[in-house]
Specification:
By secondary structure, the protein is mainly α. 80% of the residues lie in helices and 0% in strands.
Length: 84
Amino acid sequence: MKRLAWVLMLFHLFVSVLWLANSPYLFSVLGMIIWFIAIVLGFIAYKQIKDKNMTRKLILYSSSFMFFLLVVTSLIEIAISSMP
């Protein structure tokens, strides 16, 4: 499970870079679905890791940050789509 957590953290880092670059790949329907699945898998990995170690904390912070970015992206999309 720790290996999955590290892979997810690297994927979350990659998503953060794509988010900063405003990549159309990330904001496509498929990109958003994969992004959401990665967030869910991150929280599942957090629950499955029983040891109180740094990996558990990092996957929680990483998944929480990804959820924050998803919410911010949704709010930005709502604001832009409501403009005349």
